[in-house]
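pinging the channel bc i need a second pair of eyes. not urgent but kinda urgent?? the chain im working w is below, pasted from the shared doc
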Amino acid sequence: MLDFDNLEKYRENNRIEAKKALGGLPRSIWETYSAFANTLGGVILLGVEEYADKSLHPVDLPDPEGMVKDFWDAVNNPNKASVNILSDKNVQIRVVDGNHIIEITVPRAQRYDRPVYVDGNPLRGTYRRNGEGDYRCTKEEVQAMMRDAAIKTQDMTLLESMELDVFDYDSVRRYRNRMKNHRPGHVWEELEDGDFLYKLGAVGRGADGKLHPTAAGLLMFGFEYEIVKEYPNYFLDYQERMDESTRWTDRIVSTSGDWSGNVFDFYFRVYQRIAQDIKVPFKMENGERVDDTPVHVALREALANCLVNADYYGSRGLVIVKQKDSITISNPGGFRIDIQTAISGGVSDPRNAALIKMFNLINIGERAGSGIPNIYRIWRKQGWREPAIAESFEPERISLVLPLEKSADKKPLIETADKKALIETADKRKSAKTKGQCEEIISYLTIHVSAKNSDLANLLDLKPTRIRELLKGLIAEGIVVAEGDHKNRIYKLKS
C-alpha cells in the first residue's frame, strides 16, 4: 500500500498513524488498532517519526523482532483486544534507508467482528478514526455496531409490546393493489389482511400466541407516531431546492401528520417528485407508449437502497435533496461491506432484509448486489458525471450523490506534439500549488485505496486533463500506478 522509497511524501491521516516507538510497544497502539478496525482500516508505522513539517521519516528500532512478538502476544490476548483480525502478512518488518521499522496493516473489520475494542470494555475501549486522530466511540455508536453484528437483520425483530392497530391499513391496501398488478393470481391474493401480513413478514406470532408487528412491518405500514415509539430518531425528509433564494421549494416530511409517514408511502411520494423531470423518449411496445427509461429504473433502485439499508435507530434521519443539477440521498448507518465491493457488485449484506422482500414483491429493487453497479452503469451510459458514494462517521451516514449533468470527460483531450516533453514537465513540477495538489491526491489514495480520474477532479475542483497531468507525474515518480482500460481505469498508490 505504501511506497517506502518515498516515505517522506506521506502524512498522518485517516489511514496512516506513525509512532516513534523507541521505548517499546506504545500503549496508544491499541486505540489506533481499534480505531482503524472500526473505521476504514489503515497502516500503523512503528519506528517512524513525524517532523515539524508533518513529513514522515524512519528511525532504527533496536529490537523489531522482539516488538513484533510483543505485539502478537498482546493482540491475541482477549483481555487486550476483543478480536485479532490480522494475519501474518499484516505485520512486516521493513528496512527503509538502512533503518528497521514495523508496518502493521489493519483491515476494516467485518461487521460481525465489530466493535473491535480494547481492555475488555466495549463502552470504554471502542475507538474510531477521524481527521484528527483516534476518538472514543459514544454509547450510541457502539450499540449501532452491535446491532449490525447480529445474524438476524434489524427489521426481523418481533415487537411484542405492539398490536396490529399500529398499521395504516390504507397503506396495506395500496401495497396489496400494487402487488396484485405486478403479480396477478399470486397465492396470497385472497388472504385476509392478518394472514397476508404474516406471510409477508410484517407480523409474527409472539409468546402469547397473538400476532404482533415486526420491525419491518412497522416501518413499512405503520403510522409515524407509532413508528417513533420503537425508533425515536425516525425521520424521513425530502427537500427540493430549485431556487437559491429559498431554503426549499417543496418538502415532504414524515412528521407532517397529513399522511401516514411510513416507508412505503414515502417511497412513492418521493419517487414521483425526483422522476418527474426525467425526459422520456417516445417509444412504443406492443402498441402502448413506454414511459419508463433506464434512468427511472436507477432512481427507483437508489431510493429503495437508501430505505432498506438505513439504520432507523441512528440519528439525523433519512434526507433526500433534489437540486437542479443533482439528487443527494443520505441515510443513517454505515456500509456493511466495503464501498468498492458494493460498487463492483455481486455481494449483498442488507441491513433490513425483510424490507427488501416487501419491496421486491412489488417489483422494486434489483437482485441482490446489482443495484449500485447498475446505477453507475446507467449514469455512464447517459454521459453524466459519475455518482459519488461517501461514508462518514460521528454519526455514521452514507451519502449517494447523483449528478444530473454531462461529464467533463466527454470533452476531447488536448493533443501535444511532444508527449515526452509533457512527461518531463510533469516530473519537474516544483510550484507550491502543484506540490499541494499532488499531496492531496496521495492523501486521498491513502484513505480511499483507489480512485478514478473523475473522483480526483471533483476532489480538487480541476479539469480531468489537469488531473491526468498530475497523475502522469506521480506515475513517473513511481508513487502511483494505473490499473484497467480507459473507461474503467483506476489509480492506486504503488505497493
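so Confidence is low (pLDDT under 50) at residues 409-430. and The CA atoms of residues 318 and 331 lie 4 Å apart. — does that match what u expected or am i reading it wrong
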